[in-house]
Amino acid sequence: MAIKDAAEEVEPLLVDHHSIDLRRAASNSTSQLALIGSSVSPIESLDFEIFENELLSQDWRARGGRAQIYQYVLLKWTLCFLVGLFSGCVGFFNNIAIENIAGVKFVVTSNMMLANKYMWAFGVFAVSNLMLMMFAAVITAYIAPAAAGSGIPEVKAYLNGIDAPEIFSFRTLVVKIVGCIAAVSSSLHVGKAGPMLHTTACIASLLAHTGSHKYGLTWRWLRYFKNDRDRRDLVTCGAGAGIAAAFRAPIGGVLFVLESLSSRWRSALLWRAFFTTAVVAVVLRAFIDFCRSGKCGLFGKGGLIMFDVTADNVSYHLSDIPPVIILGVIGGILGSFYNFLLDKVLQIYTIIHEKNRAFKLLLAICGSIFTSCCLFGLPWLASCRPCPGGISEACPSIGRSGNFKKFQCAPDHYNDLASLFFNTNDDTVRNLYSAGTENAFNKYSILLFFVTSYFLGILSYGLVAPSGLFMPVILTGATYGRLIGMLMGSKSTLDHGLFAVLGSASLLSGSMRMTVSVCVILLELTNNLLLLPLVMLVVLISKTVADCFNLGIYEMLLRLKGFPFLQGHAEPYMRQLTVSDVVTGPLRVLNCVEKVGNIVHILETTGHNGFPVIGEPPFSQMQVLYGLILRSHLLVLLRKKYFLSSRFSARTNVFDQFSGDDFAKCVSDRHDGIGDIVLTAEEMEMFIDLHPFTNTSPYTVVETMSLAKAHMLFREVSLRHLLVIPKFPSSAPVVGILTRHDFMPQHVTNLHPFWMRGRNKLFQFRNSTVINMFRGLWL
C-alpha cells in the first residue's frame, strides 16, 4: 500500500479563515508507515529544494568570498575520501571476520569427520550455525530492527526523497556490521554485498551529520552539510563504495548506484563517486597485500574477494551464440520466478513478524536448523568420485576450501556435492567458476545443488538478520549456468566455468534487472575482459524476458515495504488527469503577519510540513500567494519567541537575532515538536512577521496542468511540495499542495476508480524493455 507522509498528512479540520476548502473534501488516506528493516516505522519526505528567503539570502551574502567556496569544495572531497577510507576498512574487516569464523567452523567439523565422528560433526556444525544466527537475530530484533535485510531498498528510497527513523543511525551501523558477519558465517544462504552497501551509506550519512550538536562537533566548516541535498550526494558516494568494498569493483559500484539506486545524477556527483570507490580499491589492495604474508589467519586461503579463476584465453565461435541465447532466456524466466516466490514468502514472513519478537526469533531458528540439515545431509546422497589425475590442486582437500572435498569418502576420493554445499558461498562460486573442471562435478549433483540453493536463497532472505541477495543469486546463477554447459556437451566449445559466469549474469539481470552494472561487476570479479560480449548479450536477453513477467526485485521490495517511490516515468493514465483532480483538502494557509495562537493551533492539529503564506491588505494590494514556510522554521520562530506586540508593530532587525544555521536541518529535527514549546496566554495573543522567513520562490503549477507533466517536474527537481495555483483569478490564490503521495496509484484509485479499471490488464507489460523504450520516445 502506498504511504502518506506523516509530515504531510491532511486532516479534515477547518481553522477559521485559515482553511481554504478545496473542490474535494476527501483527504489523502494513504498510509503513513513503511516497513524499515523488520519493523514498521513512520516515514517523511526530504527537503531537497533550495529554500530562498530574505534571511538566508543575506546570510549567504555575508559568507561570500572565494575562501568560503574553497572550504565547501574541500569539505566535500575530504568527506568523500573519509567515506572511501572507512568503507575499505569495514569491507576488509567483514571479509577477514567471515573467512576466519566460517573457516574455523569448517576445519573443526572436517577434523571430526576424519575421525569418523559424523554425528558429533553434525552437532558442532548445526549448533555453531544456530548460535551465530541467533546472535545476529537477537541484536537485530532488539537493538536495531532497521538493520534487517539488505538495506538496499531503504537506501534507494532515501535517494528518491524518503527518510525514516534509524535507517542511518550509529546503532544500525554497528548491528549491520556485526550481524552481517554472524549471519553469513552461520552458513545461511545470504550475502554480504547488500548489507555492505547499507553499512557504507550509514558511514556517509553519519559523516555528513558531523556538524550537528548531537555529536558534539560544531566546526564551522561542517555547517555546509546541514541540508538534505549535500547529505544525499554523500550517501550516493557511500552506496557506490559499498559495492566496491564487497566485490572489489570500483567502477561497478559507481555504475550500480547510477543504474539501480540514484534518482538524480549529474557529472559532478559521478566524479566524486568514482573518487570514493577508487579510495576503497586502494585500501583493499593494501590490506590484501598485507594478508598475503599469512598474518590474517584463514583469510586469503580460500580467496581474496575477487574470483580471479577464469581461463586466460577465452575463445568462442558463432556456434556458441545459440546456447548463450538459451541461457539468457531461461535466466530471465528463472529470475522473474525467483522474484515471484520471494514476494510470496516475504508476505508470509511479514505476517509472522507482526506478532512479536519471539516469532521472529523462532523463524530464524527454523531457518538455521533447516539450512544446516541441507548443507550437511544432502552431500550424503552423492557417490564418491576418484580424484582426477594431473591436477595441481590437492585432492581431496581437507578443511577450509578447495574443489575436492573428502567429506565421508575414502582416501584419494572426493564428494563433489560436498564441495558445493560444505563451503562458504564465496568458495563455492570460486569452484563453479574454475576453468578446466569439466569432469569435477556430476550433473545430478549440480542439479540438486541448483534446486536447493534456489529455494534456500528465497527462504533465508526474510529472516530477522542483516542479509543480502547478491551472493545467493550469483551462486544460484553460476550453478544453473554450469548445468546448462554440461547439458550442451559437445554442442558448445565454451568452458563450463565460463557458462557459470554467464549463468550468474543472466540470473542477476533476470532478478535485479541490471545490465551495465552487472557486466562491469562480473568483469571486475573475474578479471577477464574477454567475457564482455557474451555477458552483454546474456544480460540484455535475460532482462528483456524477465520484464515481461513482473517487476525487478528492488522495485518489488519497495512496493512490499510500502515506500511511496516516485518512478522515473509517468503512468499513461496520468495524462488523462489534471493536478486539480488529485489535490485534496482542506488546505491550511498562514498570513504574512500571523497570530501566534493561530500558528500553534495549526501546528497542533495538523501534521503538514509546509504551509502557503498569503499576503493580504494592507501588506499587499490584494490577496496573493507570498510563498511557502516550513513547519521546522515555524518551530524555530516559536522557540526563540520572535514575536510582535501587534500586527502593525515595527519588526526588529532579524539579521541580529537569527542566522542561517538556526534554520539548518539537524539530526534531531524529527524529534522536535510543538509540544516541547511552552508559551504563555499573553504570548499566544502576539504576532509573528513571516516575511523574512518565507520561501518566496516555491515551485508552482497551474491547476490545469496534466498530472503526468507535474509528476516529471516533481521527480526531476526532487521536490517535497508543489503548490497548485488557479488558472483564473479567484478568491483563493492557491488551490492546493501536491506531495509525493498525490502521485501514488492508490491515491488516484481512491479518487478516480473508473480511470483505473482494467489497469492491471491493460498495462501488464508496462515494465518491459520494449514498452519502456517507446514510452521514453513518447514522453
Automatic annotation (TrEMBL):
Family: Belongs to the chloride channel (TC 2.A.49) family.
The keyword Membrane is assigned to this record: yes
Protein name: Chloride channel protein
Keywords from the UniProt entry: CBS domain, Chloride, Chloride channel, Ion channel, Ion transport, Membrane, Repeat, Transmembrane, Transmembrane helix, Transport, Voltage-gated channel
Pfam families registered for this protein in UniProt: CBS (PF00571), Voltage_CLC (PF00654)
Membrane topology term: Multi-pass membrane protein
Broad class of where this protein is predominantly found: membrane
CDD domains tied to this protein: CBS_pair_voltage-gated_CLC_euk_bac
SUPFAM superfamilies cross-referenced by the UniProt entry: CBS-domain pair (SSF54631), Clc chloride channel (SSF81340)
Transmembrane residue ranges: 73-98, 118-144, 234-257, 269-288, 324-341, 361-382, 444-463, 469-487, 499-523, 529-553
Organism: Platanthera guangdongensis
Compartment(s): Membrane
Domain CBS: 694-754
Entry-linked InterPro entries: CBS_dom, CBS_dom_sf, Cl-channel/antiporter, Cl-channel_core, Cl_channel_pln, ClC
